[in-house]
Predict the 3D structure of the following.
Amino acid sequence: MSGTAIQENSSLLTPYAGLVRVRVGGLLVRNGAILLAAHRGLLPNNAPFWSPPGGGWAFGESLKEALQREFLEETGLRVRVNRQLHLHEFRRDELQALEIFFEVLTEDPGATPQLGQDPEHAPGQQLLSELAWLTPRQLLALPLPQIHPVLRGLLSTDDVFVPQVLLG
C-alpha cells in the first residue's frame, strides 16, 4: 500500500503516518475463541483487519496501564495483564509501529465485550468497526491480509500462548 493508497483508502490513518508508535495489545481467550477487533482503513475495499484489542502507549503510563486503558476503551472490559507473549514490528509505507502483545484475563469472566470508541477519533471516524470472538478455524478461513501476523496459522488457541518475535 503506497502513501497515496493510504490517503485514498482512509484519511483515518493520516494522524499515524510518518510516526513510530509503540502499541500494546491484549490476547483474551475464552471458550476456544480469541477476542478480536476489526479495524477499517488499513486494507482496500473496506476489508476488515482483525487484530487483538489495544493501542498506543502514552507518555507517563506503564505498558500494563496502557493496555488496561486501551482494552477498556475498545471493549468495555477491565483486564489483568499477565505475561508478555509477542513482539511484532509493523511497517507499511508511512505506518510503523512496535507492537507488544500480552496475555490478558478479564476481571469479570462473565462480562460481555462491547465495541467502544477511540478517543483520538470522532464518533463517525472510528477505526474500530466490530468486536468478535473468532476461533482459529474461523481465522484460517479469512484472507491472510485480514489477519494480524501474530494470529496467522493458528491451529488452536493454545498456539497464541507460544511467544513470537516477528521483525521485518
Notes: Strands lie at 19-27, 29-30, 33-39, 49-51, 54-56, 79-92, 95-106, 128-134, 164-166.
